[in-house]
Amino acid sequence: xxxxxxxxxxxxxxxxxxxxxxxxxxxxxxxxxxxxxxxxxxxxxxxxxxxxxxxxxxxxxxxxxxxxxxxxxxxxxxxxxxxxxxxxxxxxxxxxxxxxxxxxxxxxxxxxxxxxxxxxxxxxxxxxxxxxxxxxxxxxxxxxxxxxxxxxxxxxxxxxxxxxxxxxxxxxxxxxxxxxxxxxxxxxxxxxxxxxxxxxxxxxxxxxxxxxxxxxxxxxxxxxxxxxxxxxxxxxxxxxxxxxxxxxxxxxxxxxxxxxxxxxxxxxxxxxxxxxxxxxxxxxxxxxxxxxxxxxxxxxxxxxxxxxxxxxxxxxxxxxxxxxxxxxxxxxxxxxxxxxxxxxxxxxxxxxxxxxxxxxxxxxxxxxxxxxxxxxxxxxxxxxxxxxxxxxxxxxxxxxxxxxxxxxxxxxxxxxxxxxxxxxxxxxxxxxxxxxxxxxxxxxxxxxxxxxxxxxxxxxxxxxxxxxxxxxxxxxxxxxxxxxxxxxxxxxxxxxxxxxxxxxxxxxxxxxxxxxxxxxxxxxxxxxxxxxxxxxxxxxxxxxxxxxxxxxxxxxxxxxxxxxxxxxxxxxxxx
Length: 575
Fold this sequence. Notes:
There is one protein chain. Helix content is 43%, strand content 16%. The protein is an alpha+beta fold. The chain has three domains: 25-305, Beta-lactamase; 311-432, no CATH class; 440-466. The longest helix has 68 residues, at 507-574. It starts with a helix and ends with a helix. The model is unreliable at 1-39, 312-316, 343-349 and 392-427 (pLDDT under 50).
């Protein structure tokens, strides 16, 4: 019967539109479209001298950004006005995480119903209460527009108030062609952005550890609430995360899908590989397959054609082990890594992202900001920004070279025209005193182990048992996730099959089937009415029978009372 109800709604749409195919309205995620993509935009990064030639994607616009340096590795029509659809929710989630405690509770108002028909939602009801943490997962993984409205009202007082917050944050991030009008991305003419700006927003969000935890989650369950007795479980919509999908890539860590009929398919994808963290954006793709294929191409282009370039310290030949005294730790020396044999880096954040074929000597820099002892340099390769680094005269050693397996020597960065230079102090002088700390710590650990062997053994056994339990739980969760994905694929297959059947039907056939469905609905209602009448008649008969029984019982009681009275009178006369 649910199937017939579904068909009834869809056939009504067909009759109203008077066309030969049925227009289905689904959630905005991963839809195949037949819209019109604008004229091809220029791949602006291909015009940079010495820059690797990027792929010619089918999507109208796209961008790839290195999250850690902010370098744009790829751009096609990246500043052209585009409609973002549900990728808007990345900004909504970022503001939620930056301004709220996720342990707090939100009470949704009737604003959750203020959505266009057919948009994705989780069936949130007015008056329903939920932890903000659960709301954040529903927002990003299930793309719930009702949650987006509720969060916007909770933070901004209204949708317009929250839109002001979104636009202010976009301006802080350096967006150049963005104006938000709602928290969910459903089409509005004044709700737009561009691939460049969405990449900036996506990179800023991914640097938030809580957002990163949410967006990389494959499955989540919202527990029952004050108004729902059932749990809400859902999978991350991004197909590149799931091993049983054809678009799966092991380096994909998450992302956000989006679709409306006006915006077509949009997709934000995060990837991590070889020490690089990238984010891609594609807008206005004619179908989800094109969006995933384009995202894969430009991200693999980013991973394959670029590498981090490290500015190393020329002021000290001592390695990390020499400075920290780790060469004197006895048996612990077997844990030493060749990476830590390199000279330490004297700057925090002193690395850039450049093409593999680039000559680092062609990198220029200029002072972008100077605050106290800190100096920020903006670095460019043929006038294209490739990152920044920050120097501090009170140098604190950080073994950042461990992040990169590629050892690149870079000449000293050019100073600004004023002649100012970043100064460094000797790292040996700064950190020599830490040697004794490491030696003392190692000695205390060894003494404790020798004196408390049984405690160490028991603790290790408990830790091993906990690890085994976690592995078992993980196996069960993986099996559950696989079953859910199989069920979703089967449902999707049945839906597409039904769509194909409907597309082949003529208008007359559709109308005939619609009339048959409506006749069945009428017969069902008549049967239900007859059943209710029969039930009411049976109830009335039962009531009458009960009244008659009570009346009979009363008459019997009266006759018995009269008989007793006559018997008593007779006995009295005999006496």
